[in-house]
Amino acid sequence: MIRSFLTVSTGTLASRLLGFARDSLIAALLGTGAVADAFLVAFQLVNVVRRLLSEGALNAALIPAWLRVRDRDGEAAAAAFAGRVLGTVSAGLIAISIAIAVLMPLIIMIIAPGFVGSTSLDLAVQNARLMLPYLAFAGPVTVLMGLLNAQGRFALTAFSPLLFNIALIAAITALLLWHADATFAAWILAATVGIAGLLQLLMLLSQRSAHLAAAPLRVSFDKDMRGFIAKAIPGMIASSGPQWLMVAGAIIASATPAAVSWLYFANRLIELPLGIVGVAMGTVLVPELTRAVSSGDRDAVAHAESRALELATGLALPATLGLIVLAEPIVRLLFEHGAFGAEDSAATARALMWLALGLPAHVLIKALAPAYFARSDTMTPLLATIKGFVVAVALAVLLGHFFGASGIAASIAAGAWSSAISLLLKGTREFGFSVDAAARSRLPRIVLAATAMGGLLWMTASLLSSEAHGLIRVMALGLQIAAGITVYGLLLQVLGVTSWREAVNALRKPAPQAPGA
Q: What is residue 465's three-state secondary structure?
């Protein structure tokens, strides 16, 4: 499982790093004014769809169902089931895209009520409609990615999202060189989103194994398909909890100029560690746990849940402390260019500090939810997501009034913790989370190592002068991050959490393959 986890995490890391480059260019091109707020609200809507459908979310419903059909009825029945899912999802999303295009003004007014009566509303509607073709392409992309993951083929699905960011970076670079007007540039970027979705689909269609796993292609709304959709929708919504919380924040932030942009760029830094852990959890842990739960192998369940919790804690906790301590220098380095000024950097950094407090909760949700998905329970994670959304909106109304974007960011973090605690308490009551003795021993030492690393970063934070030359700032920040990672790795080894030999052996160990794959 470790090797598969690292394969998916590496692809996600590459995609997130390209995403940083993309967002840095967006900040330079659009800044944080009305045009930027309108574009980012529309883009946030697309990001919710991406998480609902792709990046591991649909795996929560598709993979357990596909594995059950294959194990019960054979390869041919599983391929026929997948063909019905592919055809039905594709047709349904085309119809939904048309309906959303018609209702887009109402949708934008709901998710950004502060835009009503301003030019931002019309701009957001126009941008969102130009992005809609992505929704039609995302359906078949998601199904094909899920089928490849179910067969233990993670590499292509891990790296295909790179095309999305590559296409946008190319478009933004051309617009910057052209010195395009901000409104026109936003329209071009919005249209490029749909093109990026098409590129992902074409790449996956080139794989023969994907064709064979979903044939014949049919549109069906029979009993089995209705049952699958009924389970899939709650699971997909639950898997997109962090994005729904950002929507909750945007609803309140839309009334404050530039607040949507500040929250968006701060959240992009949260999504790097969250994406590495979260996408890998959904892609690798769900099929692993499904096989273990189906076979009744309690040791396998305990092993999968324990290793997932260790990996999640080991990556999320140091990332949280690092983002809190280094918030301002990181934001200034990545985004303070062109139309994005020093005041924008300061506001974004403050929002980032509060959002980072919710990162452990987001990752904990990613580690806990697969235990429900593997048992075909998608409703409990959905209810936890809804609870977190309500908590975030309610607190954002209050804290946003007094503290602006920072208060809204704190509300989003509180919503994440509300969801995580709900999942933890109910899972403990109903089936208990199987954490083995090794995890109980290692987790406190991981926390100690991460805390020591955070202390080191805090003590050296003064080395990063805001007046330093750009190249010097890059080198100083890079050295500080490298030193933190090195110290953290050494402490993990000294404290007996892991060793270089164990890491190498984990990488060499073949990834588990599904029977018959």
A: coil
